[in-house]
Design brief:
By secondary structure, this protein is an all-alpha fold. The chain has helices spanning 2-37, 39-62, 72-88, 92-106, 111-143, 149-187, 191-207, 209-236, 243-259, 269-277, 285-323. Pfam families: LPG_synthase_TM.
């Protein structure tokens, strides 16, 4: 129970720090971008973004053998909280993983299965993003002739780093569990057994190639669907840009955001990338910046209620434990 309480308190502190960080980065500008779309348009944009989470939940549950498909909404909710923490809270990716897995284990899914499915799903997510990024690079090379040199080097560097991270992650899945078991047993008695079980489950999931392929396709569809959301946002701003151009732009933005994972929400990196790459694909700098800020507003509108909802459920669980 103490662990749950500390996580909730850390999330409260993180939310406060996130609000301060967004305020420092220009909260007024973020809200102005949302106003440019209009209330109805912004709600439509947020609803579309919500509809992407069942796809992402499908990617996670596909990597969890034995879990009923009826639990897709639970996995979608876990993925939503995971994304909210990653996008908003200062402790970024690690915090998102912790919160997402806690939601699933608290609903009775065995921890080793949750962790094993997460490892496989994260691998397919990285693979899906790499394919989507390669699509963006190819489209940029085929359609843009002037000004590409100014952005090509960071894009290629980011793509290379993504590929290296994927390779390292796959390597870690093979060699680190055994070392972790030995070290873990010395520090926390009994943890080695759980780590060993997770490692065995990871190998078994990879043997189910149909499930791995399904997780990959769901994640790839999630990347594409998320990128298409930017096209919707631009249309709501009365900016007409071809869908292929927006998909190309978003694939490259996603890549640069990923390699800037140490910065909460990639604040500053995302905006600079939009202003640099957007004009190459026909998106004026002011519209590119407005799109980036609209996405920030969307992240806040969806992420803060998701994190507050998670905190409420955790506090309810703590109160119920005390009453027993």
């Amino acid at each position: 129970m103490r662990t749950r309480l500390w996580i909730v308190l850390a999330t409260f502190v993180g939310l406060g720090a996130a609000i301060w960080a967004f305020g420092s980065a220009g909260l007024t500008q973020v809200l102005s971008a949302a106003e440019r779309i209009g209330v109805g348009g912004f709600l439509l944009y947020c609803l579309y973004s919500l509809a992407v989470f069942p796809i992402l939940g499908g990617a996670w549950i596909s990597a969890a053998p034995g879990v009923s498909a009826q639990r897709v909404p639970l996995f979608a909710w876990a993925r939503m909280v995971r994304e909210a923490a990653s996008d908003i809270l200062p402790f970024s990716q690690v915090g998102g993983i912790v919160l997402g897995t806690r939601i699933l284990t608290a609903r009775g899914i065995a921890a080793p299965l949750v962790y094993a499915a997460l490892i496989v799903e994260m691998t397919t997510e990285m693979a899906g993003q790499l394919i989507f990024t390669l699509f963006g690079i190819i489209m940029l090379a085929l359609t843009v002739t002037a000004g590409v040199d100014s952005v090509l080097l960071p894009i290629l560097a980011g793509t290379g780093l993504m590929a290296a991270m994927l390779a390292a992650f796959l390597m870690a899945q093979r060699y680190i569990p055994a070392l972790g078991e030995r070290l873990g047993e010395r520090m926390i008695p009994g943890v080695a057994e759980k780590m060993a079980e997770t490692g065995i489950l990871v190998r078994r999931i990879y043997e189910k190639r149909g499930r791995v392929a399904a997780s990959f396709l769901f994640n790839l569809a999630g990347w594409i669907a998320s990128a298409a959301g930017a096209w919707i946002a631009l249309r709501l701003m009365d900016v007409n840009l071809p869908l292929w151009a927006v998909l190309t732009l978003e694939s490259l933005i996603f890549a640069l955001r990923s390699v800037a994972f140490i910065i909460p929400g990639a604040i500053g990196v995302q905006e600079a990338a939009y202003v640099l790459i957007g004009p190459l694909l026909g998106l004026p700098p002011e519209s590119a910046l407005a799109l980036s800020l609209a996405k920030r507003a969307r992240d806040l509108a969806l992420g803060i209620p998701a994190l507050i909802g998670w905190q409420a459920s955790e506090l309810g669980g703590i109160a119920a434990t005390k009453l027993r």
